[in-house]
Design brief:
Structural class: mainly alpha
Largest sheet: none
Shape: elongated
Number of helices: 4
Order of helices and strands: HHHH
Helix content: 25-40%
Number of strands: 0
GO molecular function, one term: transferase activity
Radius of gyration: 25 Å
Length: about 120
């Protein structure tokens, strides 16, 4: 699986796979393509994956989900914690005020809404 702005490794993956002398060719599908709609590209690749001659279960090893009769061993163990969503950089107060001020529309009579601790409109 390659997630990048352009499927640059597809040719190299195919060449490496040809050196293994396998009978079945690899299924190489892009998730993103430069200057193309991301949703269409991803959905097209997903459609190609589901309709391909490759056996999907061969690559996606999950257990079958049975009726709930104390069959907890049949469920995959997913993490129980939530994703840690915190910024990875420090943004100064002036920078955040200027960035957020660009999103705030200007009212014809009231002007620009001032953010906390802001003395003049930006």
């Amino acid at each position: 699986l390659e997630i990048s702005p352009h499927p640059v490794l597809g040719t190299s993956i195919r060449e490496c796979y040809e050196l293994t002398n396998q009978q079945q060719s690899p299924l190489i599908l892009p998730t993103l393509k430069r200057k193309e709609n991301e949703q269409i590209t991803l959905l097209t690749s997903l459609a190609q994956l589901t309709t391909s001659s490759h056996v999907w279960q061969q690559y996606f090893h999950t257990r079958q989900i049975l009726p709930m009769e104390n069959h907890e061993e049949y469920f995959d163990n997913f993490p129980l914690y939530k994703f840690h969503l915190s910024p990875c950089w420090y943004e100064s107060k002036d920078s955040s005020i200027q960035r957020l001020a660009n999103r705030i529309p200007t009212h014809p009579l009231l002007g620009i809404r001032q953010l906390n601790d802001q003395t003049s409109a930006t």
